[in-house]
Amino acid sequence: MPSFLPYLYHTLFPPTVRYPDILLIDFGLIMAGIGLLGFMTKTRRWGWLWREWLTTVDHKKIAVMYLIAAIVMLFRGGIDAEMLRAQLALPTTKFMPAAQYDEVFTTHGTIMIFFMAMPFIFALFNAVVPLMIGARDVAFPRINAMSYWLFAFGAILFNISFVIGGSPNAGWTAYPPYTGLAFNPGPGENYYFLALIIAGMGTTMTGVNFLVTTVRMRAPGMTLMRMPMFVWSTMITSALILFAFPPLTVALAMSLFDRLFGSSFFTLTRGGMPMMYVNLFWLFGHPEVYILVIPLFGVFSEVVSTFSKKQLFGYPVMVVSMLAIMFLSYGTWVHHFFTMGAGPAVNAFFGLSTMLIAIPTGVKIFNWIFTMWGGRIQLTVAMLYQLAFIPTFVIGGASGVMLAVVPADYQFHNSYFLIAHFHNVIIGGTLFGLLSGLYYWWPKMFGMKLNERQGKVAFWLFFIGFWITFTPQYLLGLKGMTRRLYTYPIGMGWHELNVISTFGALIMGAAFVALVYNIVWSLLYGEKDLTGDPWNGRTLEWALPSPVPEYNFARIPVVHERDAWWAMKQRGQSLADLKPEDVRDVEMPRNTPIPFLLGASFFVVGFGMTFKFWPIAIMGFVGVILCILFSGFDYEDHHHLKADVIRSTEASLGRLQG
Amino acid sequence: MSLPLAEEQVQKLPLEFADEKESVNITGFWMFLVTDVLVFGSLFSTYAVMRHSYAMGPTADQLFKMGPVMLETLLLLTSSFTIGLGVFAMRKGQTRALMFWLLLTMLLGAGFVTTEIHDFVSFAAIGATWHTSAFLSAFDILVGTHGAHVTFGIFWALTLLLQLRKRGITARTARKIYTFSLYWHFLDIVWIFIFTFVYLNGKIV
Amino acid sequence: MLFGRFRKPYRALVLAAIAVGLLSTGCGQQYVVLHPVGPVGEKELHLMELAALAMAIVIVIVFTLYFYAVIRFRDTPGNRAPYRPDWHTNKWLEVLWWVLPAALLTVIAIPTVQVTFELAHVPKAKDPVVIDVTSLTWKWLFEYPGQHIATVNYLEIPTNVPVLFELTADSPMNTLWIPQLGGMEYTMPNRVLPLWLQANKTGVYWGDSAQYSGVGFEKMFFKVKAVPMKDFDAWASQVHTTSTPMTLAVYHKLLRHDTMGKALYSRYPRDTFPTIASGFTLTGSGMYMTMNGQKGRIVYMPMSRSN
């Protein structure tokens, strides 16, 4: 045994994680953990936490959990970004060691995409999609909870990597053969592959869930062409997830097997073909960028029509253009590697298909502008993000078209021009959209508004900080600076622009602080939303009280047209005219610990495999099997909510007649 | 969205479709199968790309023995037929017949897996593991993933047998049997592709 | 050629726009992508300018409509702009904005395809100088099969002659990029990819790897010296006579995971660069059809027949 302990110590805490800053963070985490444990025990919150949150299957609570995770991950990814900018601000600096820099840019990209943007999107899906379509829950509430816990434990597995064992360091794309054992020993990349496989399973299940929800669970009368645009975007995103994530899972699993079990898919020797990984990865990766942006097209469509007090312009065209983007997005993946020798014919084809996808996207921009045309624009924070999105996304899209020009891409590829481009569309499209949706639906989720004045401060900091950060990066690309560079020599003329860029990053950091302050302040002192319809909304979720009761709709509404709630208000109707005899017993899903335990078991499997502690991995695997068996034999997965309970809840909200 | 069917039409549907919730579950299972199609699609494309990367290892022609493969094909195709008979029995409400066909399906599936494992062990005995070449890696993961699916299916069928014994044919168990049959037919289709594009192709070309 | 006709008028406009950016940050020559010295880089730059112009048109149109809408239709008391809450369709407008981007993209797409195919072939007029490039872990190995010399982290090329790089890797992937000569191409293990570049001006340029490959990858900068053909030949024969040869032992030393400075070798072992005989895939078949027989050492085959 004595020799085992040093081995364990060296495996879990190799020299690569013994940096002073990481030790400091370890210390902070331990103290915060002890503090949290003490607080929870002192206030006797454990039972509450378990009953109300860890075992919940309610889509509204799962949305809140997704949201918390996303904001925490935004913090982590943002810290990574600030560290990167600090390192790059001046030439030949050594703000941190090169090995650590490599880990930081890898975790920055991976976390922002898989553990920030995706859960944030799912938070919005969960928060409002069932409400918008007049449903009591998603199609599979338990699977919804499993998705969340798989994502959450995948994220935890990924995030413990910087504390023990060492973080992944091969970039968020993790191209082999650099991820192979020959060049990358240690557990770092195992973390990446396992965490993404586990979280990816959860994402795939979310895709299945929301596709079935939007296809099968809509209220009577809500035909496809009467769905709110956000529901359309949910449906299309879910379909994209269904088709995009399996190739990723396969590619990740193969890379993992190369590392753990000595197979030879992408190795240098024995005929391995790294190119195959690149193809599979981008076969996922390109639809993924549309998975990241199409939901926000939906958010913007809702926000722009609400705050222009006007119907969405060109609804059928909006639907057609989203469907066109969905189909085309599977035919553009090679544009991520024009310079990998696919030959001129292939490159020309994929260059053209990439330009083609710009057309439906451009059409959407025009439709949003003409939704405002002839409306009455209210400059709320949600609308400000929308207004910032249009010019930002247009410029990002324009630089995207420049990258689609194949010969030009030979000069832009992997340069800071590319970096600026994709941050331009991901921040301008995805992050602005997420924040717009957050401000828009916050009253529905939490029952109070986010303070508008503070929100505007955060908005302007984000917007200005964004442009100060990324405009110089376009120019750096033209000066030949390439991505993932640890440091650069003096005399290239790169440092002035880098200093400006770092300054912008600091402003964006301040914006994040302002955002969190805004959230905390509003939770404590925010203006309560008593009507349930603070924005004079158009879609069904605003017909409900805020926050929404567990069963959502006491009586399932019947839909007769688009913007159903707006039309009801125009006719002087409301859902508040509920008669006691309309209320019936409701079948609700029962809470269950299985999703949480399943996620925890997968975490154990992942942890065991990361360090090749096979007994631990097998224990986790047994846990997974037990969870699956238990849910197979569990027939008591729902309970009946009595009509009396619903009547008294509705009466206390003042929505019951008589 | 409720199905746009009149009440008497709903009555005529099979048990698992008549129940709104179970019918949604079946839609969900189809969606799951879509993702599985994509998984196998990715594995097939990997195999297609790597099928000549023999490195120092044996070629497909040297490795494959058609005898066991024919046996596996026969077993799996027959099991697809028996699970079909099982669903037929379920539609007629015959619990015992259903359980018999399900058991037979499991046994045929087990025969398939045993033959396949035997085949793989014989490959390993001559040193043809996935460590040897990219071709063998791609072959092993494609056929192995299919085999793992079949193995999982056998255990799934076992749990269904237990549930049937306890509860008989209800909307819920009927839905489970129906989704299991979809899964099993799907694996059969995948095997036909493996048989054609991997084994036959490897032998002929 | 289509884009040639458009060149003159828009060029001044784009350069003016770019100049604003340059003035704010000083030396314009450091915008290497905008100052190509060879035909490949120039063609790529022309396309960038064309695309930038077309996109500028889109941006101007969108921004005009956008700012007009945002300013005119604010929800302020006494706003006299028409309020039409149910106006949601206009056939002609919607047709217009399918057609407008499509038209602009067509203008970009046609020269894109033309140039893509054009740059895939070394011009037939001149025999190119061939350089076999192997990216090693954090260093570049350049072998000159015609001159029988090898260099590390240093390139010397003749001017006004196409240079054909054959790229492979004995390491994770890297990307060879010499921005002032033209675009980049990946180096990949088990594959050989082609890239041709040309310098029309003598001078010293820089190149690097644009693909991350480990902790030392930022040390993969190298100098590229372009000299007239006569000087190049003199340099090559001087290296051939005065430098030490690269033996297999030296090559194995290069394979170590470290960084190093410039080095010159008078000879190099044959099998340090892959040939078709060693089972490697040679791609970019079109480029090589005209080259068959020009180089005795490697037999080029189209991709479909390889393996």
Instruction: Please name the CATH architecture of the domain at 1-295 in chain A.
Output: Up-down Bundle
Proportion of strand residues of chain A = under 5%
The greatest inter-chain interface is formed by: A-C, 92 and 97 residues
Multimeric organization: heterotrimer
The average pLDDT of chain B is: 90
Secondary structural class of chain B = mainly alpha
What overall geometry of chain B do the principal axes of the alpha carbons give? elongated
Distance between the termini of chain A: 75 Å
The first-level CATH class of chain B is given as Mainly Alpha
Tell me about the biggest sheet of chain B?
A: none
- β-strand number of chain B: 0
For the largest beta-sheet of chain A, the strand count, sense and barrel status come to: 2 strands, antiparallel
Q: Kindly provide the name of the CATH class of the domain at 1-295 in chain A.
A: Mainly Alpha
Strand arrangement within the widest β-sheet of chain A reads: 1-2
Task: Give the topology string of chain A: H per helix, E per strand.
Answer: HHHHHHHHHHHHHHHHHEHHEH
Family (chain B): Belongs to the cytochrome c oxidase subunit 3 family.
Protein name (chain B): Cytochrome o ubiquinol oxidase subunit III
Pfam families (chain B): COX3
Subcellular location (chain B): Cell membrane
Description:
The complex is a heterotrimer of chains A (658), B (205) and C (307). Chain A has helices spanning 4-12, 20-42, 46-54, 59-88, 98-132, 141-159, 188-216, 229-260, 274-307, 315-328, 344-372, 381-404, 406-412, 416-446, 452-478, 495-525, 564-570, 594-610, 614-633, 643-652, and strands at 586-589, 638-641. The mean pLDDT of chain A is 92. Chain A is globular. In chain A, helix 8 (229-260) runs antiparallel to helix 9. Chain A has a domain at 1-295: Cytochrome C Oxidase, Chain A, CATH 1.20.210. Chain A has a two-stranded antiparallel sheet. The termini of chain A are far apart. Chain A is 66% helix and 1% strand. Chain A has 20 helices and 2 strands. Chain B has 205 residues and is mainly α. The mean pLDDT of chain B is 90. Chain C contains 6 helices and 12 strands. In chain C, the strands form 2 sheets. Chain C has a 7-stranded mixed β-sheet with strand order 11-3-2-1-5-8-12. The longest helix of chain C has 34 residues, at 39-72. The radius of gyration of chain C is 25 Å and the shape is elongated. The two termini of chain C are 38 Å apart. Chains in contact: A-B, A-C. Chain A: InterPro entries: Cyt_c_oxase-like_su1_dom (IPR023616), Cyt_c_oxase-like_su1_sf (IPR036927), Cyt_C_Oxase_1 (IPR000883), Cyt_c_Oxase_su1_BS (IPR023615). Chain A: One of its GO terms (cellular component) is plasma membrane.
